[in-house]
Structure formats: C-alpha cells, structure tokens
Amino acid sequence: MAPLPFLLEEYIIKTDEKINKCNVKVYCKPCIKSLGDIEGRKNWFPNKKDRIIAHFKKCKNFLNETTPEKREEIFNLQNNNNTNNNNLNINKRKETSFTSETSSSKVIIRSSSYGVMDNYIVRPLSVADMKKFHTLLLQLSLSCGWAFNWINKPETEELFTFLNPFLKLPDRRLLGGRILNEAVNDSNSWMIKNLQEDQIGVTVTFDGWTNVRNEHIMGIVIITSEGHPYVWKAIDISSEHETHIEVMEKTNTILEELNNNSIKVCALVTDSAGAYAASRRRLRISKKSIVFFPCFAHQLNLCVGEVFKESTEFKTTLDKAIRLASFFRNSNNKFFISKLKEIQYEEYNKESTIVSPGETRWNSYYYVCTSLIKTQKALHSDKARLHEVIQGLAYIIQIWNNFSDEYLAAKLIARIERRWKEWEQPILILSCILHPEYRLKLFNNRNINYVTKGSWLGYYYHVWTGKHATSILKELDNYRLEVYPFDSITWNQFNNDIYRYWCFLSASTNELGFVACRIFGICVNAASVERLWSCMGFIHSNRRNRLSISKVLNMSKLRADITYNHRRQEKTPIVTVQTIIAELESLKYNETLQDNTIDNTINNTIDNTDLTDNENFEVIDSSQESEEEIDEDTNSGDFGNYLQEWISMLEDETETFIDLEENENEELENIIHPAINANAKWELLSLFKELNSPL
C-alpha cells in the first residue's frame, strides 16, 4: 500500500487493526477532538486517500478545524490523482479505431490522432441526453430562424461528427415533426399549469392579422397577472365575416374553453377595430366579472392619426419634408447634392442630412409627435398596468393643453376626451388611488376622494366575488391613514413593483387586497399579440409560404418563449411616465440652446447629435456618397397612402361609435355599468394636476 500524503497524516489517526491484507482502520482526528474518544471512533474508514478525502468533504468537524486554503489543497489531491490516472490510461492504450455511421457517410475515428479531446467526445448519449440534445437543436433552429433543412447539410454533419462521433442527428422531417410536436406538448402542459395556478386571474388579448398567404388569422395570447405572456392559439377566420356578432361568438368560445381548463379570466383586451369595440360594449354587460378594455398602444396610435386628420398644415409640412429629403437623396440630382454639401461644409464644417422643412412651426409639431411616440413606446410592453394608462392619457392632454395653436389643440383634446369616455374610468382612477406613491396627490378634482371611490371598491368586490363587502371601507381607511403595512416604509422595500406589493398586503386584508391585486394584475396591452404576428411573419416568409398555419403556430409558440426569456435577461432601464417627461424636457432644452446660437437659415438642418430619436436619418460621411436612388413621388405617395389608411381607421371607429350610441338606449336602458354610467365619467383635462417634470 502506497504511503498517504503528509497533508492527510495531520488530520487522521492510524491504527494497527487490519481490515484486510493491505488496509488498516483510520479515524478522523477532528471528530475525536470534538466528539470525544468513544463517539469519535464510531466512524472509521480504510487508509485510502480517496476514502479519507470523501469523509473530510462531508465532515463538519474537519471543516471547523481547517481553513479554506488548506481544504482546497487537500481536496486537490484527489483531482490530481484522477488526472494522473487518465493520462496513464492514455499512454497505455493502444491505437484503436471505431466507426460512426450517419445518414449519409461512415467516419472512421482513430483515438490516438485526437489527443486529449478524445477523452470527452467518445461518450455515447443516454435517452435523456438525446431528448435534451434534440430540444436544443430545435431551439437553435427557431431562435436563428433557420429552415429545418440545415440539419441535413454536409457541413452540419461534419461539425457534429467532430464534436461527438456518437451523435446521430435527426433529419429535417423528424426535427420539424415529432420533436417539434413533443416540445410543443410539453410547453402547452407547462403553460396550462401556470395559468391554472394564477389565482388573481389572467388577461386575454386577441387581434387579427393577414399572413403571407393572405389568410386572415385571429391570435389569442394570455398574460398572467405577473406579466408573463403565453400564446394560446391562432385561428384561420378567412372564410368568416368579421362583425361584432362573430367576434362575440368567438370570445364566448374562448372564455368557455378557458373555464373548462380551470383558468380564471379577469380582463379581456382587444384592438380598436369597429367589430371588436362593438363586441366589448355588449359583452361587458353580460359578463360583469370580466373587465373589457381596448389596447392602449392602439389607442395611442389612433391619437397620432388624429393629428394628421385635424391638421392639413401638418400633413402638407410632412409631405414637403419628405419631398425635400428625397430630392437630395436622389442620384439624378448629383449637381444639387454636391452644391448642398459645399454650402454645409462652409457653414458647419461638416455635412448633414436635411430632416425638417422650412415651416416655422415644424419644431412644435415635432415635440408633440415625439411625446406621443415616446408614450406609446413606454406602454408597448407585455404588462402595461392601469395606472400607467391613465397617466399616459393625462400627459397627452397636458401636452395639447399647452400647445400654441389653441384651435387645433381644442379639437384634438375633444377627440382624446371622447376616446377617454369609452374607457371604464372608475377602475383606472382606483389604480392611481391604490398606488401608494400617488394616492390622491395627482388629482385636481375634489370629487375624487376616498369616500366616493369606496363605493366603487364595493362594486368591484361584489361583481368579482359574488359577495357583499363587509370590511373593505375600514381597510381603505387604514390605507388612507397609512397604517402599517400601508406605510411608505413598506412600499419602498418593493422596488416599485406594485403588483407584488399588494400580493404581500393581501394576507393582512380580507377584501381590499383582493380588489387591488386584481386591478394591478390586469395588463392593458395587446403588444404580446403583435409579437406573435412578428414571430409568425419571421417564420412564415415568402420563401417558406408552404408551411401550414398549425406548424407556424407551434414554431411561433416556442420562439415566443425564447424571445421572452431573452427580454427578461436583458438589463434594460424601466421606462415610466417620469422618464418620458425628463427626456422631452431635455429635448426641448437642447433645442432652445440651439435656437439661440444658430441663425434662422440653419433651422432647416439638424446635427446628428440631435437625431437620437430618429434612426431613419443619418449624417453623411464626407468620404462617401449614397448611390441609392429614391423616387420622391413614390415616397410621398407611400406616405399619403399610409395617412389615408390611418384616417380610414379613424372614420371606421367613428361610425362604430355612432352606431353604438344609437342602439345604446334600446339595449342598455335599465343596466348600470361603470363604463356607461354618467356619474362615473370625468373630464381628463380637469381630472389631474399638472404633471411635474422630475428635472
């Protein structure tokens, strides 16, 4: 028997008592020292280095007696021994060969030619390893957007043969067939389990889309109260009429299907198309336990369209801007482009692209559009909470109220107020009141107080639970007085996560916590459906237009999970209403400084440093010249068509509003609902105080 290393001799007690011909009993010295001679000698082991080190790794007494450096030095004795044994086996091993058969070739691998790497590539995979390997191949294909035939390429086979000759790659039919179906089935089971465990309730969002084969698809995405989106299904409705009757039938079918799967629904969000708006207004009467909302991102999109509809000056200004920019990017106008570059270099010592026309009011319109776009960007996420919605609308109203053109501002404010009137206002106002950072601080209307809103809390508790509230007002009063746990110290520990804050408080509140969790568990955004269309469009391209809808949906489900995990892992800053205001105020401040230092003739150009929010315009390098020909008539025509499509959406929505108002008295005469109750309507312009900039 080889002698033990000196490092081990210090912590063991050897005896003469033999276990067999070669080994004797050994005791742990730290155990005897700590437990005593009798108890410490109850645990013995042979005088083998690996057995002694194995005991030391799990011995608390040894850990207490030694330093981390000493333990690492002792434990490395075992690792060094394993390495030496492996090297010895390699030196003793004769040159051997084996074959690895794949679908198209036979590769002979000689172990001696691969050196040390041969120790790791020759292990065959178990059944569980192969399933994991197939799943990783599928995820790689979907994440990169590769067609499944990449798996059959000779280069792919050569790569994986080099990594492990025992790996047998599936062909494209197996990867896009059984492996894909098994992965989707596992994903669906996990999805249903998570949705069933959401006790607050999920938000159902759906929207329509036309794919590359001109098939009209309706997609359904479900968002948990924590904000996790799941793709439920996509249905081909090309052969069906899209009226509010058909939308109502499909909505009822979806809700019934979710109910059969024991999934609780608390809200339903759709876009602002006429059929969806009409179905929302009818369904919210028959299903009071579910809150029906339009998608806020779509609402802001329509707000931007209303600017073009009301202001012919704005439309003309943008049209001229596009024509001017197109003129100086058309290679047929090289003479004028070169003259422009010379003048720019004389004036600014650099060259830049023209991004604004010469009208004096362009900058003010630019700020308005930028604010709307930034607000939409902030809320174009999977979980736009209700308090973000009402603050976003209030900030848009504030911008127009301070606008220089009072006539245009009045018309646009009236349009936004009309759009705001269609929302279920009490629940949005409650979302601000129940936010510990805001409470009643933002409101300017004296009618907004804890007493008046307490009745609406009782209403929502009743329709959501079927019970009458017994203690919700008392709990609301404790919240008003900021009694623990409603105090600011508790709130500051949740890092602005309002949903988790109320989930924590629900354990100490019988009724108020339930209502608050439900309110802040609603995600008023259909952005997840738009991401589904983006996924399906990415996969179902012109080159892959033969794919069936079911297969595209299965691939999109898995790819949506992958992209969602990527978004969660990215450390992006949180965009809030306050950060939007800060960016806008900074933008205005920089523009004021620029106006004070640049002549009026320079106002038609803009430096590249001011183009952080407009990626379509770039500074032209003096050493390069764009050879891309741009037809100014085509550009202006495309822009005009886009505006006309925008205006048509608004007119369609207006006609829907008129039809609904005509039928409202007939169908809803004796029904009181927060969305149509005249006593539950407030003007957005006078509802809030001025939103202060954080600067």
From TrEMBL:
<dbReference type="InterPro" id="IPR052035">
    <property type="entry name" value="ZnF_BED_domain_contain"/>
</dbReference>
<dbReference type="GO" id="GO:0008270">
    <property type="term" value="F:zinc ion binding"/>
</dbReference>
<dbReference type="InterPro" id="IPR007021">
    <property type="entry name" value="DUF659"/>
</dbReference>
<feature type="domain" description="DUF659">
    <location>
        <begin position="170"/>
        <end position="321"/>
    </location>
</feature>
<dbReference type="Pfam" id="PF04937">
    <property type="entry name" value="DUF659"/>
</dbReference>
<keyword id="KW-0863">Zinc-finger</keyword>
<dbReference type="InterPro" id="IPR012337">
    <property type="entry name" value="RNaseH-like_sf"/>
</dbReference>
<dbReference type="GO" id="GO:0005634">
    <property type="term" value="C:nucleus"/>
</dbReference>
<keyword id="KW-0479">Metal-binding</keyword>
<keyword id="KW-0862">Zinc</keyword>
<protein>
    <recommendedName>
        <fullName>DUF659 domain-containing protein</fullName>
    </recommendedName>
</protein>
<keyword id="KW-0539">Nucleus</keyword>
